[in-house]
Specification:
Helix 10 packs across helix 12 (about 350-365). The protein has one domain: Amidase signature (AS) domain (Amidase signature (AS) enzymes), CATH 3.90.1300. The chain is of the alpha/beta class. The chain has 16 helices and eleven strands.
């Protein structure tokens, strides 16, 4: 039995029946990481001792008859989530030697559920990027073609799952950073509604759009992880108080009567091979009784410029605390405070992080805040209204996740504008705080390679069940 090829659902049955132990499963994944990660470079840290310790505890709980969805299930977490007594670098030289003093809320919930943390995954520094090339340590490679990016900023988490190094992984999605790498790596990436999962213990990038979510191999697996990590947290002011539902309860329902919106703007100029793949999925839904409704999101063309004013502005504010005084990179030999700050931030931050701080500081500066930041917030409200109008007509939107398959490492890294346009189909749902998911749509040919691409499902806030049920249906039809 090839244990690393399992889904959470299949592993659950084997663990509960006693056919395998949590230690068997954990040791297998640690071995796979050791064998494969030399090429993929998905992990920044592997905690072998901690994982085995957790696995032994999980086995004790299993022997006592405990049966919970993630008990004994090994996973990896993006290295922007606090993990007590383990390094948490955010992919930055600034935090290269930083050890977290506490766990993020989601890590704590997974610990209580008995999930087993194998280690931490690579990312674009502070989640700033779409290729994982902005990591201060190394670039991660796409398992489907090692010359290509796995996407970003959660590229390490997506690549690790695609390479069978874990049963699920955690990423963060601020403007597409779960969905885009999910598309490039042929896995499911779920962005829950804003506030559905607590941000406590997440190093903030854009506080008004940051969301933690899972990468998984199936929609059912995503539902199991979401049920575990979702819920209200008094430490996070944006955390929603609505009760958590059983996301896997009605996953097998059909799509008869489901109103599916096809976003006109998202298909204009789209790669024809990707369009054909998504059109086939739309046809499946139609044949099985779903109602297909053309939808126009007239403000969607403003989502990327709006996002790239609001996001750098919030980054400029959130990263102001990184000055090397209390923690992070510092040089105590420098006595002048201004030079001390300059030295810490110049040496600690990478090029993309500096670019976003400068853009954000400019957008918030006196004389320009009204012209840029406040106007962007006004347009954001129009984008939200656009989606609200659409969801008065339909239950779920279907769209491409990315305009093309994974690009080659080094191909776009020196072209910030092209890199920012990676979020063209993704930023709108983030700005509106909606539930969204990317799932495998098939493969397209590029440079004589068969490369995966994804389709995106978007639903109203707190309607994760809708996208999970639709994704589950498409997986099985």
């Amino acid at each position: 039995m090839d244990l690393n090829k399992l889904t959470i659902t299949k592993a659950r049955k084997l663990l509960d029946s006693g056919q395998i132990s949590a230690q068997d499963l954990t040791r297998k994944y640690l071995k796979v990481i050791e064998e494969k990660d030399k090429e993929i470079k998905a992990c920044l840290l592997v905690d072998k001792k901690g994982a085995i310790r957790q696995a032994k505890e999980a086995d004790k709980r299993l022997k006592q008859g405990e049966k919970t969805p993630l008990l004994g299930i090994p996973y990896l977490a993006k290295d922007i989530l606090m993990t007590k007594d383990l390094k948490t670098t955010a992919g930055s030289k600034f935090l290269e030697d930083y050890t977290a003093p506490y766990n993020a809320f989601v890590i704590e919930k997974l610990n209580k559920a008995g999930a087993i943390l194998l280690g931490k995954t690579n990312l674009d520094e502070f989640a700033h990027g779409s290729s994982t090339e902005n990591s201060a340590f190394f670039s991660t490679h796409n398992p489907y073609d090692l010359e290509r990016t796995p996407g970003g900023s959660s590229g390490g988490s997506a690549a690790a799952l695609a390479a069978d190094m874990c049963l699920f992984s955690l990423g963060t999605d601020t403007g597409g950073s779960i969905r885009q790498p999910a598309s490039y790596c042929n896995v499911i990436g779920l962005k829950p509604s804003y506030g559905r999962v607590s941000r406590s213990g997440l190093m903030a990038m854009t506080s008004s759009t940051d969301v933690i979510g899972p990468f998984s191999k199936t929609a059912r697996d995503s539902a199991l992880v979401l049920k575990t990590i979702a819920g209200h947290d008094k430490k996070d002011a944006s955390s929603l108080k609505e009760s958590v539902v059983d996301y896997s309860k009605d996953l097998d329902k059909d799509v008869k009567g489901l109103k599916v919106g096809v976003v006109k703007e998202y298909f204009q100029g789209l790669n024809k091979d990707i369009k054909e793949l998504i059109d086939k999925k739309i046809e499946i839904l139609k044949k099985q009784g779903a109602e297909i409704v053309p939808i126009s999101l007239k403000y969607s063309k403003y989502s990327v410029p709006t996002y790239y004013i609001i996001t750098p502005s919030e980054i400029s504010s959130n990263l102001a605390r990184f000055d090397g005084v209390l923690w992070g990179l510092s040089d105590e030999k420098i006595k002048d405070l201004k030079k001390y700050y300059q030295n810490s931030r110049s040496k600690g931050f990478g090029q993309e992080t500096k670019r976003r701080i400068i853009l954000g500081t400019f957008s918030l500066s006196a004389g320009y805040a009204d012209k840029y930041y406040k106007k962007a917030q006004t347009v954001r409200e129009l984008i939200k209204k656009d989606f609200k109008t659409a969801f008065d007509k339909v239950d779920v939107l279907i769209a491409p996740t990315t305009p093309h398959p994974a690009f080659k490492l080094g191909e776009q890294i020196n072209d910030p504008l092209t890199m920012y346009l990676e979020d063209i189909y993704l930023a709108g749902a983030s700005l509106a705080g909606l539930a969204a998911l990317s799932m495998p749509a098939g493969f397209v040919k590029k440079d004589n390679k068969e490369l995966p691409v994804g389709l995106q499902l978007i639903a109203p806030k707190l309607k994760e069940t809708t996208i999970l049920e639709t994704a589950n249906f498409l997986e099985n039809n």
